[in-house]
Design brief:
Length: 362
Amino acid sequence: MITRRPTRQIRVGDVAIGGDAPISVQSMTNTQTSDVEATVDQVHRLQAAGCEIIRVAVPDMDSARALRGVRERISIPLIADIHFDWRLAVAAMEYGAQGIRINPGNLGGAGNLRKTVDAAKQHGVPIRVGVNSGSIEKDLLESLGYPTPDKPDSLIESALRNVRLVEGCGFQELKISVKSADVLTTVNAYRALSQRIDYPLHLGVTEAGGLIGGTVKSSVALGILLYEGIGDTFRISLTRDPVEEVRVAFELLRALKIRERGPELISCPTCGRTRINLFGLAEQVEAYIQTMKSPLKVAVMGCSVNGPGEAREADIGVAGGHGVGIIFKKGEIVKRVPDEDLLEVFMDELKKMEAERRPGRD
C-alpha cells in the first residue's frame, strides 16, 4: 500500500492538485500555440487519451493572445509555459491561462516577478516554480556544484530560493518541480525537496528521450517516487506524439495500482509456436482499447496452446492458431474463428463487452 506524502492543495482550473486529490496526468502540446486550430485539435486528442491538464508554450505575444481561442474550445485546465519575459506571463493570464510555469529568477528582477505574481493573484492563477539542471543560478553552481545523484544540492537550493522569491510577494499557490535528465539525480532531488516543503510536487524527467528510452527513464524515476508517496501531478516527457506521453503515464499509474483508466492489455512476446501476425494484431487491438473506458483485462496471445491458460485472468482474449484462432473469456474458449476473420470477430466481442461493462450503464 502506497502512503502519499501530505501536501497542501491547490487548484488549476477545476483540477485539485495535492492533498488527497488523485495524482493528475499532464502533457504539453508541440504545436505552434498561435495556431489555434492545430493546438485545439491536439488538445482534444490528448484529452481523449486521458490528459487532465495541458501546458502550452508561450514564446511570443501572438501565442499569449491565442490562449483565449484555445481555452474557449477545450475543457481541461490550460497552463502557459513562460521563460524570461514577465510580460508574456501577465498577458497569458489575461488571455485565459489557468496556471503558469515560470522560473522566478529569470524574469528580470524582483519588480518583474512582483508584477507577475500580482497578476496571478488578480486572476486566481497558481504558479509552478520549475527548476531543472540547466537553469541553476551560477553562484549556486559555483558553491554547490552541478547536481549529481550523490549531491543534488544545487538543484534543491535553486528551487527553494525561487520559492522564497514568490513567497516574498505574498503568494503561496504554488507547485514545485526539480527536474534533471539523469534518473537518479531526479529521484534524489525530489526525495530531499519533499522533506523540506509541503507544496505539491510536479514530477518529471527533463529531456528524457524518445519512446523507448524516455519511457524507461521516466518510468524508473517516477515509479520510484510515486511508490514512495512523492508526487502530486506529473508529465512523462517524450520526443514523440504527446498522446504517447499520456498512455505511458496511465500505464505507470496502473502498474503501481494508483489509478486505472480503460483496459489493460496483456500480450505475449511471441515464440516459435506463433503462426499469425501477432505484432500487427496486438497493435490494432491496443489502438482500439485506447478509446475504451471500462477497466477490462484484454489478452492477445500468440498461440492457442498456452494462451487461455496463461491469460486466464483476462476478461477477454484472442489467440492465434494454425489457420483457426480462438476467442476466450476468463480462460474458457467461447469461439473458434478462421484467422482471416479473427480481428473483426474479436473487435465485435470487445465492443459488446464494453457496452455491457460501460460505467454508468443501468
